[in-house]
Design brief:
Layout (H helix, E strand, L loop, with lengths): L3 E11 L4 H9 L4 E11 L3 E10 L4 H10 L3 E10 L10 H4 L6
Antiparallel strand pairs: 1-3, 1-4, 2-3
Length: about 100
């Protein structure tokens, strides 16, 4: 099976633990080299965040357990990159809203 190298998750979590604590715990997992967490929305009880992880072999189950232990839940997997090397998404005419497609 191919190694997961990038994973982007939509997560809902309580205010505590903080994003700093969550990033630290995720960064300690085997196979993860980098963690980026972005606050999308906040209300009086919860935060909606986007978590981007990069590494050699990201284990979704391990990531999910850290999120759940923090009181959060994974709403969706928004992007996955896997394989022997990273590739970036390529923009197509549909993405750019080409006028000739309308």
């Amino acid at each position: 099976m191919s190694e997961v190298r990038r994973l982007v998750l939509d997560v809902l979590k309580p205010h505590q633990p903080t994003m700093l604590v969550l990033a630290d715990k995720l960064g300690d997992l085997d196979g993860i080299h980098g963690v980026d967490i972005t606050l999308i929305e906040i209300d009086n009880k919860v935060e909606n965040i986007k978590i981007t992880l990069e590494g050699d072999d990201i284990d979704f189950q391990d990531v999910s357990e850290v999120v759940q232990d923090a009181g959060g839940s994974v709403h969706s997997i928004d992007k996955v990159s896997a394989g022997k090397r990273m590739i970036d998404e390529v923009e197509t005419p549909q993405d750019a809203g080409a006028p000739w497609l309308r």
